[in-house]
Structures are given as C-alpha cells and as structure tokens.
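Posting for a labmate who doesn't have an account.
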Amino acid sequence: MKDTYDALQCRCPRLGHEVAFFYCRQESGVMPCRRVMACWGGLIPVEAYLRAEMSPEQWDLFCRQEPQDKLSSLVDLVRKAREVQS
C-alpha cells in the first residue's frame, strides 16, 4: 500500500507548483508534510493511508507538529532546495 498514491500530483501551496504525493508523505525526512491532510484530503483517503502506514507513536508525533511561521517555513524550504541541488 505504501506506494499506492505516490505518482498522483497536486499543487503545493508552499512550493507553488505540482508535487507528487511521494514528496508530501516524506517531505521532512521520515514524517509527512504538515499540510498533507489539507492538500490531499479531498483527493485521496490520506488520513486512513497515514494511519495504516505509521505507528501509533509516529501518528501522535505527526499530529503534534507545530505549524511554522512563514519566514521559518521559507528558510527551511530554501535549505532543502539547496540540499537537493548538491
């Protein structure tokens, strides 16, 4: 089930372009993007998918993520883009 939705794409409001679900489900390394539920909720059963793929401890940690302010989010995205280019 892990790669069932990986090829599907939707527009990422943080990046400003289309991204695959694969990126969103592992955006921060091990954890999904904080916005994965909002972005994908109308397209796929994302909550059911994440609950099936994550341990209860991971799910709890995911649900407790603090939202980032715009500047912190932008700095984090720039850092990740640089890492990908290297």
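Reply:
Got it, the structure tokens are right above this. The chain has five helices and two strands.
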